[in-house]
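To: structure subgroup
Subject: Chain for Friday's discussion

All,

I'm putting the inputs and outputs inline so they're searchable in the archive.
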Amino acid sequence: MVQQRRTETSFFSGLLVLIGGFVLLAVLVSVRPILTVDVQIERAVQSMRAPWLDAVAFGLSFLGFPPWSIVIDALIVLAIAITGQRWAALSAGFAAAGSAALWFAVLAVVHRPRPTPDLVYVAARIGYGSFPSGHALNTLAFYGFLAVLAVQIERVWLRRIVVMVCALIPLGVGWSRIYVGEHWPTDVLGGYLLGAAWLLVTCRIYVTGTWRAALSVWHSKNS
């Protein structure tokens, strides 16, 4: 009972910190769309240019653009379902769909302009708002949950590889959005904060559902 209360407290405390940080950041960029620290960091990142980095950046950004992002996520969810882990697959789909819905909702409220060529390098002009980075939000929520699922992999070497890849994708995608000039660093940070919050919610739902299913099986065997 005590352990359960501690878990509850940790969950809600973590969620409160993440959402609180996101809200504060959203207010800040709404009041001051262009921050000196954003420009400085973006220029520093973009100063380290190379043809191979260009290819990596555009490749990572590609992961987050529909319809390809939807196709990739759907294939991964389908692969999980094929292994027999239907609840895990449903939860992964929930992480992906929910993060996309959150991005649309925030975008309708926070109208921050994208970086402009007079301040930093911009690979392509995108018409909709900049905050938060949908790429950062979606990849952290989805691949973060995949990392949680990967902890269950029995083979240690495979588990480590999958967890590492799932951790590197959101980090790499966040870097790529700054590198190509389509987001400010605080857009990426906002995406990470909201993505982490949604990841917590998804994990909570997944663990609760898994525990109830196990309890139901136990009762059926002992009744």
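Points worth raising on Friday:
Helices lie at 2-31, 36-47, 51-62, 68-82, 86-107, 134-150, 156-179, 185-222.
DSSP finds eight helices and no strands in the chain.

D.
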